[in-house]
Amino acid sequence: MNAAMAAQAAEGVTAMLAFHEAMGTTRAVAGSLLGVPAAQIAVVGNTSAAISAVATGIPWSRGDAIVLFRGEFPANTTPWQQAARRHDLRLIWLDANDFASDDGLALLEATLLEHPVRLVAVSAVQFNTGLRMPVEAMAALTHHHGSAIFVDAIQAMGATPFDATNIDYIASGGQKWLMGPPGTGLLYARDWSSLDPVLASWLSHDDGLCFLWGDPDRMDYDRPLQTGPAIVEGGTLNFCGLAGLRASMELLQALGVEAVHAHINRWFDRLEPALRDLNFQSYRSANPPRQSTLMCVRPPPGTHAGWVAAQLLEHGISVATPDGYIRFSPSWPNALDEADEVASVLTRVMSGRTR
User: Fold this and answer.
1) Are 187 and 42 in contact (CB under 8 A)?
2) Pairing relationship of beta strands 65-70 and 117-123 according to DSSP bridges
3) Is the dihedral of CA 83, 85, 88, 92 positive or negative?
4) From first to last of its 355 residues, what are the pLDDT tens digits of the chain?
5) What's the rounded Cα separation, in Å, for the pair 105 and 108?
6) Which of 158, 154, 93, 91 is nearest to 124 (CA)?
7) What is the pTM assigned to this prediction?
8) Residue 58 near residue 31 (C-beta atoms within 8 A)
9) Residues 293 and 159 sit within 8 Å (Cβ to Cβ)
10) Distance (Å, rounded) from C-alpha 309 to C-alpha 318?
11) Pair 265, 329: CB distance under 8 Å
């Protein structure tokens, strides 16, 4: 990131050429992490921008149905709700927690049989419980019934492996498990021709930079628009942030997503028994295929999750508190003995608490 900023400071607009060329490497390493073609990946500002690009770009027909899930992070519901309002679509809600077992797949299949579903939108990992959704099986079901599937992968990509081969659309921001800077994100589409995006700008055109390098008469407002990922990129990108994301993804590629996932779950194996001893309720699945790199717990009755988080923060331990849960999300830099330290701090905090 420092090198990118130094290049812009020293070279000005001419640094743009190298920045654009570097996006090819960014797409390549992202494609490697997902196991999909790099040419099918767009770089965007965040997960919300990626989801909105698909929600506004699908050529909907009145009466199309979208399957959504209660418990989802709003970034993967609000854009679809907006599309439903604009295009008179039907929203069908299922419960994400039902997918802790195969009951959820049976409910999904029944829904696909009963309704004209155009799209199923689901997160690879639920942000509040840490449930790892069976997106591969869900993709097979949706395609069998002529529907498409969209996966919000921000709580999975870089730490929880999943097979992206048969998924139609995947979005991820860079600041979670990819451990990149905020303001960076990725969007994969298996078939970009399935989208007709609403927005386009100067870099949406073929050879959009050509008029900047001194040649006269290169300003052609009718230059054809590009196809593929460029249709959602459009303007100047966050090149410094994307340099950081690229470097982090290269590191994750070297470490291996499976190895990161295994390390984090060993970390949870050390902490979870202590949490249960302290009367925390763990929502981590006992079924390894449903385990992610989030461990979410409810505090003991009468204890507020925000209070626990504040006590932990005083000891240098940061946790999130989505929807009343306490969410632990260590990653590869967190040593296993840190789990013991967290358990020790929680034991002192809970034993010293006065109601």
Assistant:
1) yes
2) parallel
3) positive
4) 999 999 999 999 889 889 999 999 999 999 999 999 999 999 999 999 999 999 999 999 999 999 999 999 999 999 999 999 999 999 999 999 999 998 999 999 999 999 999 999 999 999 999 999 999 999 999 999 999 999 999 999 999 999 999 999 999 999 999 999 999 999 999 999 999 988 888 888 888 888 888 899 998 999 898 889 988 988 899 999 999 999 999 999 999 999 999 999 999 999 999 999 999 999 999 999 999 999 999 999 999 999 999 999 999 999 999 999 999 999 999 999 999 999 999 999 999 864 4
5) 5
6) 154
7) 0.95
8) no
9) yes
10) 7
11) no
Size (the chain), residues = 355
Give all domains of the chain, ordered by start, each with its CATH number.
2-254 (3.40.640.10), 256-351 (3.90.1150.10)
**Residue 129 token pair:** 């419980």
- Decide: 110 and 165 in contact? Cβ < 8 Å: no
Question: Which tokens hold the place of 199?
Answer: 């927005």
